[in-house]
Design brief:
elongated; mainly alpha; 2 strands; two-stranded parallel sheet; 120 residues; 10% strand
């Protein structure tokens, strides 16, 4: 597997149905999806049809191992990179109605997000 397909599979595996929705016939394709990427496609299809936004939640305590190796620990940059990777996965499916939520157990990481340098 390539690095990109590994990354896609990792992010795709995070998409799941909230408990209690398994019985809903419209969501049956999500529950029966063969692969994690198929599950993402099924979730996106349902959300597009119903105009439901998808929340992307990034938690410093559950970052991808690849990002932890790259940054050494859960940094603000690692959280933002993870969020952008999830957004990219959805945007490849033509889905843009998203909300991003990020948190870290470190107050410093949570408050000091990386920002682009402003030019005078």
């Amino acid at each position: 597997m390539s690095k990109m397909s590994d990354m896609t599979e990792y992010h795709a595996s995070a998409y799941r149905l909230p408990s209690g929705f398994e019985h809903c016939s419209k969501l049956k394709p999500v529950a029966e999806a063969a692969t994690a990427l198929d599950r993402v496609k099924a979730v996106v299809e349902v959300c597009k049809d119903k105009h439901i936004p998808i929340r992307i939640g990034v938690n410093g305590g559950s970052l991808d191992k690849r990002l932890l190796e790259k940054y050494g620990h859960p940094t603000a940059e690692a959280l933002v990179e993870s969020a952008f990777e999830h957004l990219e996965l959805l945007e490849k499916q033509g889905f843009y109605d998203t909300c991003v939520s990020m948190k870290s157990s470190s107050m410093v990481t949570s408050l000091f997000w990386p920002t682009p340098r402003l030019k005078p």
